[in-house]
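In response to reviewer comment 3 from the previous cycle, which asked for concrete evidence that the modeling workflow produces usable outputs, we include below a single protein chain processed end to end. The sequence was submitted unchanged, and the resulting structure tokens are shown without manual editing.
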Amino acid sequence: MSDLNRTPLESAHEALGARLVPFAGWYMPVQYSSIIEEHKAVREKVGIFDISHMGQFLVSGANAEAWLNKMLSNDISKLAPGQGQYTIMLNQSGGVIDDLIAYRTDENDYFLVVNASMIGEDLAWLQQHADPEVSLINASEEWAGMAIQGPLSADAFAKVCPDETLPPRNGIATTSSGAIVCRTGYTGEDGFEFFCPAADGISYWEKFIEAGTAPCGLGARDTLRLEVGYPLNGNDLAPDRTPIEAGLGFFCKLDKGEFMGREVLAAQKENGPEVKLTAIQYTSKGPPPRAHYPVLAEDDSVIGELASGALSPSLMTGIGMAYLPVAHSKIGTKVQIDVRGRKFPAEVVKKPFYKK
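The workflow returned the following structure tokens.
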């Protein structure tokens, strides 16, 4: 465990009795009470997650917009200062390196939030394609990060930061104390991410807990995001899968000009992909589906494997996502999940699995 990265909030997790596990090179809380309890806290009230493991890059310079538009799939030029967007970093073949949120903080300044396991790789890729007129700084170690999620998240913010205003959806703001607040999330609920200097992390964490947020771990984070069909990089997104195959074509602005991987995406959009990231749900009771379980057609032929899978605490049934041939990805198609040699009936459904 000594070679794992440690979050600035680790002692607070230990004080709350969290179960900590290795995750993406970090030692992280997987749960405190139970995954189902924490999941329901976010769906019904408000929960807090430690996201200090996620990366933060600062990009600036007069040519920053043009450079980011070449390196990322969405259209950065559409952002006004104080706005953010979901976007994707692609390789030359249109495969996904990482999915991230890009915020414009000023005319020529940007704040990128990237996935924990990809900090080094993202940085190396951006440096490999650097623009001499653009500054790129990895500020990941400077920040503690928390995601406050749930219908009561704005109430929690008002208690902890009574003199501040939450930014609008997909917005970003800096508080008078120097914290960065981003109004996005990974759960399908209202919420925000709160980044503060690492030394202030435990203090803010404890203030949010006192304000009524339930501490939540990676287990609930995974079930929450899967219920609303949000992809997990490394599982549902990969260097040999394109955003078109993953159903994320909306976030790839093919008309903005050239960008990394564009030609592949344009051809795929025109001709249609051969496989699609498909939502699958049990049609009867069964054990929790997990990543890499085979997906079978009705004739027992293997047509793919689960990229993600879990028992949905909101629906109390097994759900998952898999790349399936287009012929098998139509809503209503009957399939089977192979769980250690036992077959369980399922069908293709429309995303998201869970709706309010």
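The radius of gyration is 20 Å. We consider this sufficient to address the reviewer's concern, and the full set will be provided in the supplementary archive.
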